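Chain A, query sequence.
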Amino acid sequence: MIGPDDVRAAARVLEGIAHRTPVVRSRTLGENIVVKPENLQRAGAFKFRGAYNKIASLPRGTAVLAFSSGNHAQAVALAARLLGSRAAILMPTDAPRSKVEATLGYGAEVITYDRYTEDRDALGEALAAERGCELVRPYDDPLIMAGAGTAALELLEDAGTVDTLVVPVGGGGLIAGSATIAKELGVRRVVGVEPAAGDDWQQSFAAGEIVAIEVPHTIADGLQTHAPGVLTWEVGSQRVDEIVTVSDEQIVDAMRFAFERLKLVVEPSGAVGIAAVLNGLVDSPRTGIIVSGGNVGADRFAELLA
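Chain A, predicted structure.
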């Protein structure tokens, strides 16, 4: 179990390195609602926070390997470059082209696999062992969770304590770190949001244990996990209050809202929190929403909104 001091320690590591993304508001969304746009973060998503916190803990120059559909891939690639390490990334064959190109652009090697027929955890562990690399997991790591939680820490420092914090949930690194610091700072409820097609967290909460599902088919590629992480579940099951789901159609509407009203380009996975609030799934006097990322190509963004 990570604690609030782990999140604060990560904040010190990231100071001057990660962007302190602003808090934004929209009267149309609600006067008592604040949004943390991590689509404005380095590498386009909150993932940079955890990746840098993890790689900075390793001996300088340690070669790293990660598996990711895109945001963690870019984050690891950039963090490794900044810290003088080599990075190899295992990415699914259907990963968005814009995310693959960005990962390559940061200097990482990209190795592909089929997310629907192959086990990325097993592939990643085998490849890391074969190459002698440090495996940088996308969420199931205390340093990754703590780094991710700094987004919530900044939101609460800059906007004041909210009654409810709304967080996208895939593997669970962001919500585990966020819930850890949020509860310590007085947030009453932490609500996770996932795509309806990939409701592994909601099913796990109902069962009281980790439930695995088939890899979901959803436009929210960053949330296509089939089960909560072991470590993230340990934290989330104790500190997260509720999991709600949104449809792909609701996600697209939220992306349109963010673009037209907030002037933010948000990827599907990053828009689920806004979707939950727009559709009345979160009822709270004062709400904070973490927008987790904005890595979506212009053509894909236009296609979805059309």
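The beta strands are 24-26, 30-37, 64-67, 87-92, 109-113, 134-135, 164-168, 189-195, 242-246, 287-291. The mean pLDDT is 95.
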